[in-house]
Design brief:
- The chain contains no helices and 17 strands.
- By secondary structure, the protein is mainly beta.
- β2 and β3 form a beta hairpin.
């Protein structure tokens, strides 16, 4: 039976003589919290994604608020979360944009719905945001001797394991590639990278 719903009933008795019916009666089931599910998570990027929910039944009391909550820990609630959306009211399907997320981070998501009886949550889903492309900047080379130097730079690997190379040569076509001494690097901060080049031709 559905909660918060009126049901009608009667007795029907049938024999060889006749079929008779009692007077109609009815009863009401109790109101409950809403019933809902959490929508699949799509459009995952570095700092956003898309989810939502579906309020299947309002529990017999109108849904006054619905949305999505998320956290880096399991079982997010409207009181314990790092992000929350409000996506209107009522029954049916709704979508929610999850924004201001951190790169390469796992989040746990649940849809929620509120009525006069209380709050309920949909099934929990999880996803991991993407990392961003590396951010690089070259620094002035340090001369070590007449035919050797130290190439240096800064790289932010964007939360992903990143292999760092230096290209060098006599023209802007470069021609030679070497791997930075610190490679590969990880994390989300600027990392100093370098490599020593020796045996250069003295012109």
């Amino acid at each position: 039976l559905q909660s918060g719903t009126t049901y009608y009933y009667r007795i029907r008795a049938s024999s060889a003589v006749d079929e008779v019916f009692s007077s109609p009666m009815f009863f009401n089931t109790q109101l409950t919290e809403p019933q809902l599910s959490t929508n699949s998570i799509t459009s995952i990027s570095v700092n956003s994604s898309l989810s939502g929910g579906n309020v299947i039944h309002d529990g017999g009391s109108p849904v006054t608020e619905r949305g999505v909550v998320w956290h880096t820990l399991p079982n997010p609630t409207i009181d314990d979360h790092v992000g929350k959306t409000i996506s209107g009211s009522g029954n049916g399907d709704f979508s929610s944009d999850l924004v201001s997320l951190s790169p390469q981070t796992t989040y746990y998501v649940r849809a929620y719905a509120i009525n006069s009886i209380g709050i309920s949550y949909g099934n929990e889903l999880s996803f991991t945001t993407l990392g961003h492309a590396p951010i690089v900047s070259s620094q002035q080379a340090i001369i070590l001797s007449a035919n050797s130097l130290d190439l240096r730079g800064l790289v932010n690997p964007g939360h992903l394991s990143t292999i760092v190379y230096f290209d060098y040569g006599l023209t802007s076509a470069y021609g030679t590639t070497v791997v930075a001494t610190q490679s590969p690097i990880t994390g989300s901060t600027n990392t100093v990278v370098s490599v020593e080049i020796s045996g250069l031709e003295v012109l």
